Amino acid sequence: MSDLDLPQRQATDALMLTGFWYRALPADRVHRNHLHKATLLEIPLVIGRDRIGHPFALRDACPHRGMPLHCGRFDGENLECGYHGWQFDVHDGQCQLIPSLTADQKLKVDRIYAGSYPCEEQDNFIWVYIPDPSPPGAGFTPPAEPADEAPQIEKFTNKYKLAYLQAEMPVSIDHGIIGLMDPAHGPFVHQAWWWRTQHSIHEKQKNFEPIPNGFRMSAHTPSSNSAPYKLLRLYADADSITTTIDFVLPNIRTETIRAGKYWFSSLTTVTPITRNQCRIDVVAAWNLFRWVPFVPDLLKYVFAKFVEQDRRTMELQAEGLKHNPHLMLIDDADRPAKWYFQLKAAHLEAKRTGTEMKHPMAGPVTLKWRS
Ligand code: FES
Ligand SMILES: [Fe+2]
């Protein structure tokens, strides 16, 4: 059999990091015995759930001649390509049957694989592990094993609520991420009478520290000039409210707010869909206001407003970026963005040389800016 798999392999580049878990689809959109299309890092995927509800992800291109597998037939266990009827196990992608083979033809069917990706369901999302690109002969490669499990939201009690929001942005993952960690846009993009106005801009100082694969804005008391935090202090009747914000490669921002026995946790990801398109998914868990009417809806409304403001801003930014302008990152407000690029570079360098990653931050750093 000749190897016609050229279009199956895609060169990786420094923009979209492989070897990590990525959020693919909200779990409630993926139904049993149905096939769904998704794209991650420019890789076309077909995602579904088997008969007992376990999710799976395959490359949406048959290893025979590239027919999209989502056009095939799925019986809850095997997926049959719509072109020549080859059948694949949906979990490991292994070929089960090639109908055109005669009894005396000895092709080893079980050596053929449709690309399959490790898949997990976590906090209402289907996560897919995107391994490093496989060596030539991808049609014969069994699935990769991820080093760890898909990321989870940190929770501090057994009972909690969970909600998610998502928005697509027409910019690269890099712009999506640095937009997310950028402290200086707040007063200009996220204005609202109940949150803050441009006039509330003031000097801030935050401590950061290196953590594996990322950095942390050390636990601090949130800025007192916003209404939701005032409300929270009143409700939790706690003198200390602390919030911790982490960023870790490739795309994860977690925020944890703790006030006495109450907590709010979110895990936000910016997922590369294509080189010029990303999607932001905010999933939040909390045990606050569980019994207070309207508050969860209000929280969701506030978050949705924020995300929409960011989405709209990036949509406009994409207009300007079309012309390839020269860009700059300034201190201190853009320092987290600089760390992000340095972390990425250090990660790629460590991978290239097979050595341990050299963290770009030598130790704790205090940053100052006005916002
Ligand atoms: S292209 Fe899928 S079976 Fe031929
Ligand atoms: Fe924002």
Number of helices: 5
Give me the strand/helix succession: EEEEEEEEEEEEHHEEHEEEEHHE
Main beta-sheet strand count, sense and barrel state: 8 strands, antiparallel
Structural class: alpha+beta
Q: Any low-confidence stretches, pLDDT <50, length ≥5?
A: 1-12
Shape assignment: globular
- Alpha-carbon distance between the two ends: 62 Å
| Mean pLDDT figure | 88
Strand content range: 25-35%
Query: Helicity, in percent?
Result: 10-25%
Task: Say how many strands there are.
Answer: 19
**C-alpha-based Rg, rounded:** 23 Å
What are its keywords?
single chain; alpha+beta; 4-stranded antiparallel sheet; 19 strands; globular; disordered N terminus
Report on this model:
Helix 1 crosses helix 5. This protein has five helices and 19 strands. The strands form four sheets. An eight-stranded antiparallel β-sheet has the order 12-18-17-16-15-14-13-19, covered by helices on one side. Strands 2-3-4-9 form a four-stranded antiparallel β-sheet, with no helix packed on it. A four-stranded antiparallel β-sheet has the order 5-6-7-8, with no helix packed on it. It is globular, with a radius of gyration of 23 Å. A hairpin with a 6-residue loop joins strand 6 and strand 7. The N and C termini lie far apart (62 Å). By secondary structure, it is α+β, with helices and mostly antiparallel strands. 30% of the residues are buried. The structure holds FE2/S2 (inorganic) cluster (FES) and fe (ii) ion. The site of FE2/S2 (inorganic) cluster (FES) has 8 residues, from loops.
